[in-house]
Amino acid sequence: QVQLVESGGGSVQAGGSLRLSCVASGYTYCLGWFRQYPGQEREGVAAIYPEGVTTYYSDSVKGRFTISSDNAKNTIYLQMNSLKPEDTAMYYCAASRSACGLWLGAFKFWGQGTQVTVSS
Q: Which of 25, 32, 76, 109 could form a disulfide with 2 if both were Cys (CB 3.0 to 4.6 A apart)?
């Protein structure tokens, strides 16, 4: 079965940076990052195809966030730069065994979440 372990969340001031990490075990076709605000649905942030040949980003983070992978370690990262208060959310690592992208329904395996807080 798939297991996902996240790390790297924390508190930072606006304009700062954080890097999230997710170590995956088991077969995964695609790995991605989602975030959730209180009282709202989870939304896709970024995803990466096998071997890191294709990436996807939400419009709200393009140019600021970068997803990458270390295939030898079966690990993905989310480098978050120029953070804004609206980036404050619970961030989840997720895995899909079918399609890749930002479609929530494709992802069936989830990490426990890591909190990111950005203050102004």
A: 109
